[in-house]
Design brief:
By secondary structure, the chain is α+β, with helices and mostly antiparallel strands. It is 42% helix and 24% strand. The longest helix has 24 residues. It holds the Pfam family PAS_3.
Length: 847
């Protein structure tokens, strides 16, 4: 074990130039060049660790006289289980006369070390007796460690680098390696590389020394990096699974025949294909041949013999008769070859093509019939092509047709220098029409819009439906935008006209984005993007308008996209907050309630009103989520007001059509009955129809059961009927501000509003007037019998805390008026109008 020479042959004596008797007792290291000592030590330890393997290394021996001779050394170890008993046999051969069979060639002195590096074989030696460990340079290298990097010295330190799923395995196998048994224990585990990724290590080791109590004293072994092999095995497994799936899905059977042994191996697919139970071995000349159709037998055998004899791949098709007596057609693809043992073999695949051939016969018959009816098929082909290129609902060309036309038009513009304009048209609030009136009404509207668009352009222009409610018009462009403006305005004006569907008057509008270019600059792909950006800009500016693409449109589009992201984040963070606008009794101007209005407390832009975010929220279809957030915060504010001693009779909150149709609305409300009676839900007049659908009706019944009242918002702008009001049974109608703003100057408006109030009272429904901004408004509405007033002339929307302060000041102000100036003209006027010292804050009507 220590390198002492026990015996030396004459060959070694000749190499060293010393008599063999003088070599016994000396150390072999005395004859090695200093730079070769490390390579010798590595292979010496490797031989002891793996006594069943020969270790080779190329060194230089210092012969008598100091001359060096390159030699190839083969090391083989023998021992009885203890390190002290290890005897290593070393065969020395001059490098120049190395045995060709061994494959050794003259070359570098560190050939063995280089081979170890190439093979990523590392040596480790754990001397448990002296508590010393040895790790070869390769051990460090495969783990990414530099020569001076620290290495694990204890089991706990080692396990920190082992994959958690492999730690128990490593512990178990190390325990096995430390048993008094020279047979190596081999296992694989994952180790964290210095760069952080996992590598696979194959560890081979055994105990080479133990004491008389069988306690391990020294364990020696090797490590190999098998990461690449593992990846290859995983890839092979993946390919095998895919191949198996492909074979099962395609019902293909695979076989391999050995003609020298007279046997064949069939996979499960072959047995299934021939309707047989699986067997271990199939004899050539037996099972398969017995099922071959007699009329095909001679031809098939001749074909097989010829191709196998000449090792030529081939395909064939033949009939077999299965056990059920039915005739099947089998198609085969085979590859003859000679294996490494010299056996002549053939591998192949079979699959049943009976159904395919039957289909081919049917197709042949169909072809015969088709040729006889060529004219009918041609007409059918044209019809199919038309259907493939046109929208089934509107009859307009579809996106596929548009893509084809765009390529032709673009090529024509570039070659002739002519111009092109794209008008991207999108219907405004089309989803609401579908939700409110049903898809049949939406379909009728789309057909109506398609007809209007065709009438708005020249016959030579191109109009297509490219999406649900999106259309594209391709028109000529001569360098002037005036004609494009006229065309866009005509489209918008035409689509503002109502269309009657099943007796229901549906109204819609459209927004249009326009991009144009001429000559060689025409890039329709880019123009489509530009028109889409312009369309988005048109919608952002209020809809029902058109917008040309400009250089700064893209930046505005990017800002709008950022706003979209901000809205979604704001919803998650709860940045939407309620602002409350007070409502007053029309006769006494006592506080009758509040309406909760949504505001966005933006972290950088400050407080934003709905006009800044509601259109985008509607496009994102999250209005109902915002409504619900405002509702939950209003419940919390109610508790605050009660704690402050404020008496707010009720709170109105908006509810979207989507939320009203939500089957989970009952769970979302989650409110106690005593609080529910404090709330009123405002529904847009356009939400409800004469015939309420089942889900809306169920949710409305639940709201009433809780005690939540229903109000109709913006009444007078929709299409509600008396029967619809009777079925819905709201508690109040909110008269839209558009009807109240001219009450002081228009007798017709007063008559109209008075009729709405009277109609509501006749049905037991109260009235709430929005948009009260002057004393005259309040007086007229009170005289008309209106029940409740709301508007900027009375109170502006305000936060929860501001509302507390405002109401407190209002109560104190009214108390002072009654106490000190009860008989003054100003007091009498304040009592009459209710506008005395009541914060009439103005600003944009942004509720």
């Amino acid at each position: 074990m220590d390198g002492e020479i026990l015996a030396a042959s004459d060959g070694l004596s000749d190499l060293l130039g010393l008599p063999s008797s003088s070599l016994a007792g000396r150390n072999i290291r005395d004859f090695l060049e200093v730079q070769d000592t490390g390579a010798f030590e590595t292979q010496f330890l490797a031989a002891i660790a793996a006594p069943d393997r020969s270790q080779r290394v190329q060194l230089r021996l210092r012969a008598d006289g100091g001359m060096s001779k390159p030699v190839a050394v083969a090391l083989m170890a023998e021992h009885d289980g203890t390190l002290a008993s290890a005897i290593v046999s070393a065969a020395f051969t001059e490098a120049g006369v190395a045995n060709d069979r061994d494959g050794e060639q003259p070359g570098t002195d560190n050939r063995a070390s280089l081979a170890l590096v190439a093979a990523k074989t590392a040596i480790w030696d754990h001397d448990l007796e002296s508590q010393e460990t040895f790790y070869s340079d390769m051990w460090r290298q495969i783990r990414g460690l530099a020569i001076d990097d620290p290495v694990p010295r204890t089991m706990d330190e080692l396990l920190e680098f082992v994959h958690p799923d492999d730690r128990q395995t490593v512990l178990d196998r190390i325990h096995q390696q430390r048993q008094p048994n020279l047979n190596p224990t081999i296992f694989q585990y994952r180790y964290r590389h210095r760069l952080g990724h996992w590598i696979w290590i194959e560890c081979r080791g055994s105990c080479i020394k133990w004491d008389r109590h069988n306690h391990p004293l020294r364990v020696l072994g090797t490590d190999n990096d098998i990461t690449a092999r593992k990846a290859w095995e995983e890839s092979l497994d993946r390919m095998s699974r895919r191949l198996k799936l492909a074979l099962e899905a395609s019902k293909i059977g695979v076989f391999e025949a050995d003609f020298d042994r007279g046997t064949a191996e069939w996979d499960d697919g072959m047995f299934r294909l021939y309707h047989l139970e699986s067997q271990e071995t199939v004899k050539i000349g037996g099972l398969w041949e017995s099922m071959l159709h007699p009329d095909d037998m001679e031809r098939v055998f001749r074909n097989v013999d010829h191709h196998v004899a000449n090792l030529i791949p081939f395909s064939d098709e033949y009939r077999v008769i299965l056990n059920d007596g039915k005739e099947h057609f089998i198609r085969t693809r085979t590859l003859p070859f000679i294996d490494s043992d010299g056996h002549r073999k053939m591998i192949g695949a079979n699959w049943d093509v009976t159904a395919d051939l039957a289909l081919q016969r049917d197709l042949a018959q169909a072809k015969t019939l088709a040729e006889a009816r060529n004219q009918e098929l041609e007409a059918a082909r044209k019809q199919i092509e038309y259907v493939a290129l046109h929208d089934a609902l509107t009859g307009l060309p579809n996106r596929r047709f548009m893509d084809r036309m765009i390529l032709e038009i673009e090529a024509e513009c570039k070659s002739s220098g002519s111009g092109l304009a794209l008008l991207h048209i999108d219907l405004d609030r089309f989803k609401q029409i579908n939700d409110i009136y049903g898809h049949h009404a939406g379909d009728a509207l789309l057909q109506h819009v398609a007809k209007l668009l065709k009438e708005s352009v020249l016959e030579s222009d191109f109009v297509a439906r490219i999406g649900g409610d999106e259309f594209l018009a391709i028109v000529g462009y001569d360098g002037s935008t005036e004609e494009l403006r006229v065309t866009a305005e005509r489209m918008i004006q035409n689509m503002r006209q109502p269309v009657v569907v099943n007796g229901i008057e549906c109204r819609s509008s459209a927004s249009i984005g326009i991009a144009h270019e001429r000559g060689k600059n025409v890039d329709v792909g880019q123009m489509l993007l530009d028109a889409d950006i312009a369309l988005y800009q048109a919608k952002a500016q209020g809809r029902s308008r058109y917008q040309f693409y400009s250089a700064n449109s893209r930046s505005r589009f990017a800002n709008a996209q950022q706003t979209t992201e901000d809205i979604l984040i704001a919803l998650e963070r709860g940045e939407f907050v309620p602002f409350y606008q007070l409502q007053f009794d029309a006769k006494t101007l006592a506080i009758a309630g509040v309406e909760a209005l949504a505001r966005w407390q933006h972290p950088s832009r400050g407080l934003l009103t709905p006009d800044k975010f509601l259109p985008i929220a509607e496009d994102l279809n999250i209005v109902s989520e915002i409504d619900h957030l405002i509702y939950r915060k209003a419940i919390s504010d109610l508790d605050i007001w009660k704690a402050e001693g404020l008496n707010i009779p009720k709170c109105s909150v908006n509810v979207s059509s989507r939320r009203l149709r939500d089957p989970n609305l009952k769970q979302l409300l989650d409110i106690q009955p005593e609080k529910a009676r404090w709330f009123s839900f405002e529904l847009l007049e356009s939400i409800f129809l004469d015939d309420l659908d089942e889900q809306i009706a169920e949710n409305l019944a639940h709201l009433r059961q809780l005690g939540i009242s229903i109000e109709i918002d913006d009444f007078g702008t929709g299409h509600a009927s008396i029967m619809g009001l009777l079925r819905l049974r709201p508690s109040a109608l909110k008269i839209d501000r558009q009807l109240t703003k001219t009450l002081d100057t228009s007798a017709e408006q007063r008559e109209l509003v008075g009729s709405i109030i009277s109609m509501g009272h006749s049905l037991g429904v109260k009235s709430i007037a929005e948009g009260v901004e002057t004393e005259r408004h309040a007086e007229v509405l009170r005289d008309l019998g209106c029940d409740t007033l709301q508007g900027f002339g009375l109170a502006i929307p305000m936060s929860c805390s501001d509302l507390i302060e405002f109401v407190s000041r209002l109560v104190a102000s009214r108390s002072d008026v009654r106490h000190d100036h009860a008989n003054s003209p100003e007091a009498r006027r304040a009592k009459k109008t209710g506008l005395h010292r009541m914060g009439r804050g103005g600003g944009k009507r942004d509720q």
